[in-house]
């Protein structure tokens, strides 16, 4: 009797084992790992626990204390907050993390498990690409795709991607870390979605007025002391990680780097692939009123020097004129922009704006400006009749120079850089202080509906090697606007003297 029972159990056991082995083999035989994911879900990850999900509140990038959310946050069961770099969709606002997709819930759970098991970490985040790592080197490449470490020094925030990397395995396999397939990087900044302990969040809070730069502001205030684990096996869908930088700005709610600069006295943000500025410079010695091509290239922005405002204005003028030509909006270069063109074939570096005249009839055609916006795309914002009846065109991006900054540092894992902090550069930076409000710092084009006579004929002027249309009687008009206009004027901003 006893023996018979074993005769049944043994083959059954064998069949179960064999099936499992075959399944495993099938999973690891090819790169398409849909099957392995299934296995992982069934055999490695415990099912999503109600307890865990209710321990997290999800907060948007510009979260302002709201009674309802604060009351939810105050509950003892809430241990973590998930911070996302965008506005929350209404259903996520009301449902919280329960409204996330199944995949995102599973990814979130990995971060929670990591934090539950790692009491000395304040937060955790995932990676930007979903791949299975095959060892330390591929883990390193994956982890270093995104920001990890920052340091603030001499009005500069350097953001780099290095940080110590450790093996990380689900707890039941911790005995064998040499065969790790999951790794995590120790960071002190997160620029994508991340989970933070509630207590840490409450001690620092999220500052809504820092808008789309909330992440940078938040981590700046942490003074680099937070420990954030970046997990190689965690990947949120874009629904969690997208930035709504642009959506924000086109609603006219334009809070950008200058707020960060103003609050923290930060002028320069140095990343591995670019240098961004919270404001441009219009210093007369550094940015003389001369065509850009004739400027000494030793003062290049690629070396870490400030970016001259007239470089930005030149870019926005030529881009906008291209778009207006396509749409069929006739223009004339006028006021301070014409003054610079006639006087020096360049821009007046210390003017705040570029001035264009258009027909009154065109100015009233909203569709034409919508078309201009479509051509300009997301890099610019056309504020139609922003300052009625004047239309204003802004750039959406901070003054930026695309440059590989690795060579400034003493190695891949270093923050030491003398080149970026030479006394010459620091002297130029000092002149930019204090950083003021965005509205003042931002350069733009103003488009004025103008008298019909200005369009009866035209002449051409050159600005930075490019030809533009202006009024037929430029000399007469300039005399009328500015008097003895060929004289270089004392350093004053166009806001007070040149404009309109
Ligand atoms: C630059 O930073 C160093 C170290 O943080 C400091 O000693 C120095 O005074 C700073 N220089 C200026 C010009 O702020
Ligand atoms: C252009 O038109 C203006 C006024 O309409 C006139 O005073 C001026 O002489 C014209 N210029 C040329 C070059 O024809």
From TrEMBL:
One of its GO terms (biological process) is glycoprotein metabolic process. It comes from the Eukaryota. Pfam families: LicD (PF04991). The keyword Signal applies. InterPro entries: LicD/FKTN/FKRP_NTP_transf (IPR007074), LicD_transferase (IPR052613). Residues 1-29 form the signal peptide. The keyword DNA repair does not apply. Keywords: Signal. Residues 326-364 form the LicD/FKTN/FKRP nucleotidyltransferase domain. This is LicD/FKTN/FKRP nucleotidyltransferase domain-containing protein.
